[in-house]
Every structure is written in structure tokens, then in C-alpha cells.
Amino acid sequence: MASTAGVVEEPKKLKLYSYWRSSCSWRVRIALNLKGLQYEYKSVNLLKGEHFSPEFTNLNPMGYVPVLVDDDMVVADSFAIIMYLEEKYPRHPFLPRDLQKRAINYQAANIVSSGIQPLQNLAVLNYIGEKVGPDEKVPWAQYHIQKGFAALEKLLKDHAGKYATGDEIFLADLFLAPQIGGVINRFNIDMAEFPLLLRLNEAYKEVPAFQGAIPEKQPDATAN
Q1: Is the pLDDT score of 11 beyond 90?
Q2: Contact 95, 105 (CB under 8 A)
Q3: What are the b/e assignments for 172-191, b being 16+ CB within 10 Å?
Q4: In the chain, which residue ranges form alpha helices assigned H by DSSP?
Q5: Which of 65, 107, 166, 179 has its CA 20 to 30 A from that of 118?
Q6: Strand 39-43 to strand 14-18: parallel, antiparallel, or no bridges (unpaired)?
Q7: Phi and psi of 69, rounded to 5°?
Q8: 125 HSE (CA, 13 A, CB side)
Q9: What percent of the chain has pLDDT over 90?
């Protein structure tokens, strides 16, 4: 901390632009908690279209949450944010030293961030409802979630321990916890087909950094 004329200046607090139910925001909240970083929560209500406002699109022209502001740095996209935090704040590393284990973490995170979540997010489901039919929204989401979950079961079966790639929390866990926890009830996914992921979901419930990041505990959470 810098000081001027004997006055101690506190470091500027990080700002996270987030929506409580966003799984992308959720994974960044976990990352911040694991790193022990304090941040100011800036709510962006997706249902009210606040992500399309000029103020927000100046931060992220794509109009997606989350966005992290760190002093004069603005970082959008959850994967980019998490890797930024990993490089700037080294405590509790998210990447294992072992190269093979690191590669497994990258693969698991990418299955979630590229092969599952974008295909079941609000914008895509609204488009499916409009162009195909409202009754097709849930089957569409279920198909892509189940396909991704099946791939994750195969990928992790020889690497998982207490957590996704062993007995320590790494990158894959940050992506898995919101993806699993966020869809079980919302899309009525039968987790009996995915016993490894179900076990991991239970393990995450015992980790304070994960529990502090769940949607229901966020300041913009609603009863609906």
C-alpha cells in the first residue's frame, strides 16, 4: 500500500459486473473467493436488458457479463478474467504444475465454456423459442448439456480425486461447479447418468469459496 504524507492509501477494490444467475459470473466469483480478493459487486440485470446499455457496452462491446475492472484494466469474458487473475494474483494457483493435468483442466473448462454453456444461455434459448418454438427450448438445452456432461465423465474418469483432477481445486472445478449446480433443477437433468459429476457437485458444497459464490447469496438475487 502506498502512503502520502503519512496517510495510508488502501488499494483500489476490484469491480465485478455480474448477474446472480449467470454461470459465467458465478465461475469468476469462485475465482475471486479462492484468491482471497475483495471486490465491489456491480449488478447487471439481464432480464431488464441492462447489458445493452451504453455504459455496459463501453466495458464489453459484446454485452455479456461478467466484466472485471481492476484499476485501469477492463477484462471481459470469464475465461479471460480467470486467467488474468491467475497471472496477477498467484496465491491459490488454478493451474497444476503437471503438464498432463494442466491439459485436462483446459479441456474440461473448454467443454463447459464452448460446448455447453453458450448453447443453453438466455440469448440462444430465446432465439430457439422464437425461430423454432417455445416448447423446443428445454429439449435443446438438455441435449447439449447431456452431450457435454457425457464427454466430461469420460475425460475426467481417470483423473478425478476429491475434485475434478485430483485432491486440489483447479481451473476445471471453477467451470464445473456453476455448470452442474446451475442446470440440475433448471433443465431437469437426471444426474444419475453422470455419477462422477454428481459426486463433484456434492464436494463443491463443502468449500466455502464455492458456497459464497452461489447465486442465492448474491446481492441482486431474487426469489424467482
Answers
A1: no
A2: yes
A3: bbbbbbbbbbbbbeebebee
A4: 23-35, 54-59, 78-88, 99-110, 122-131, 137-156, 171-183, 195-204, 208-211
A5: 166
A6: parallel
A7: -115, 120
A8: 18
A9: 91
**In sequence order, what DSSP letters do the residues of 116-175 get, joined into one string?**
IGGGSSHHHHHHHHHHT-GGGHHHHHHHHHHHHHHHHHHHHTTT-SSBTTBSS--HHHHH
Measure the CA angle with vertex 82, ends 125 and 88; round to 5°.
Answer: 160
Q: What pLDDT is attached to residue 13?
A: 87
Band of residue 204 on the pLDDT scale cut at 50, 70, 90: very high
Q: Kindly report, residue by residue over 129-184, the tens digit of the pLDDT.
A: 999 999 999 999 999 999 999 999 999 999 999 999 999 999 999 999 999 999 99
Element (H, E) at 41: strand 39-43
Give Cβ neighbours of residue 113 (< 8 Å, ≥ 6 apart).
Answer: 24, 78, 79, 175
What is the rounded average pLDDT of the residues 209-222?
A: 97
pLDDT at 12: 61
**Pairing mode of beta strands 73-76, 39-43:** unpaired
